[in-house]
Every structure is written in structure tokens, then in C-alpha cells.
Amino acid sequence: MTKASVSRLVPKVPKVPNVPGATRRAAYSASTKRALIDVAEVLFTEHGYAAASLDAIVAGARVTKGALYHHFSGKQALFEAVFERVENDAAKRIQKALKGQKDPWVKALEGLRAFLEVVQEPGYRRIVIQEGPAVLGYERFREQEERSTFANVLDIVRSVLEAGQWDLDEPMLQTYARIFFGAMSSAGESVATAADPEEAAERVEGAIAFLLAGVQMMVEAGVDMPTTLTPAPGSIAED
């Protein structure tokens, strides 16, 4: 993608109407920052972090490099802003799918489907899955990911587990949510990096639906939730 084509994708920083000086400067500053993030998202998606130059980004946003450095300390900080927006947009879409769902099993499956749709999108695949861990570092990547999507996972897990007669305290609910969150992150990566993401998403949906069906059967049968591992029949631990 050429600099000219990027410029066509992102409108020039708009003129700010006649308002008091401080307000006008703040509005212009916000418009400039938004334009930089818009262009950076396009270029990071199309070419990846390493190949997207700051010169191309400022040219696409039609601002100066000084304007870029006014808002961001450098390329990595700009990438982090793009990453955060992509993750937040994904979280909002999943949250929208969960909203108003009263049945915990329907809620879980709708949230799963929304997540699987998100991870198939080029921007999410490139910026979050492929580039995020390497550019941000694993710990920073995980921190950002948890900040935006963990609340949705916790909401789903809470609804599912509270459907049973299990008396779970908050730390135990958090434990289940973190385990499920890790599984979903891994599943999302497998879909995003697959040769056929749509087919991979169908496999993930089938596998998780199967696991949810097992939990649903336990709830309906009134099965007690185990708090420790039970040795299998004939195992050494049982002898």
C-alpha cells in the first residue's frame, strides 16, 4: 500500500471550529492523535510492525513527525495505542453479544462465537495475535489482553458456574475464569494462525460446546463439584 493510498483511507485532520483557545487546541490535539492511530492501524495490519515506518505513518495522517512525538514516545508506544484500541473494540463486540442473555449456556456460546469472529479479522490477527507478544513483550501483552477481555470471560464463567448449586467463593470463580481465559487465548491463536481460520474456528466452537455440554449435564444432575483430584480406578494413588 502506497503512502497516497493510506492518505485516502484516513481523512486529513479536520479543522476545529471557532471555540476558546484551550478547547480548540485540545480538540485539534485529539484529532491529530486519532489520525495517527487510524493510519498506524492500517499500516501495521497491512505490513506488520517492522515494515511500517514512522515516515509512512505521519505522511498518511498528514501531520509532522513532531506532532507524532508530541503524542507518542516512539513507534512502540504508537503500536501499543493501536493494540489497545483493537482489543477494546473486540471486547465491546463480545460484550454486546453477551448483553441481555439470560440463559448461561446460550450466553457462553454467543460469547464464544463473537470471539471467534473477532480473531478471524485481519487487524486482530496481525496486531494482537501475531505482532502483540513480540512488540509488547509477553507480560505487557498479557496485561493488556486481560485488561480488555478478561471481564467478559469472568462474566461468562460466573453465569455458567452459578447455574449449579455449587457454593463457590470469589477466589475459586477467578481461578476457573483464568483457566478458561488461558484456554480461549490459546484457541484464538490457533484460529488466527491457521491456514483456514474459518475451519479452525468451527473446530474450536465444537470442542468448547462439547465441554460446556458436560458442565450443563453436571448442573442438571446435581453433581457435586470436586475440590481435589480423584484417583482413577486401579491407579497407584488408590492402592
Structure overview:
With 239 residues, this protein is mainly alpha-helical. Helix content is 73%, strand content 0%. Helix 2 (21-47) packs across helix 7 and helix 5 crosses helix 7.
List keywords for this structure.
single chain; about 240 residues; mainly alpha; 10 helices; elongated
Strand content: under 5%
Along the chain, the helix and strand elements come as: HHHHHHHHHH
Number of helices: 10
- Please compute the radius of gyration using only Cα atoms: 23 Å
Number of strand elements: 0
Class per helix and strand makeup: mainly alpha
Mean pLDDT: 86
The largest sheet, given as strand count, sense and whether it forms a barrel, is: none
Q: Name the overall outline.
A: elongated
Helix content: over 70%
Uncertain spans: none
Q: How do the helices and strands line up, and which of them pair or pack?
A:
Layout: H1 3-9, H2 21-47, H3 54-61, H4 65-71, H5 75-98, H6 104-118, H7 122-136, H8 138-161, H9 170-192, H10 197-221
Please summarize what this structure is.
The protein is mainly α and 239 residues long. The chain has helices at residues 3-9, 21-47, 54-61, 65-71, 75-98, 104-118, 122-136, 138-161, 170-192, 197-221. It contains ten helices and no strands.
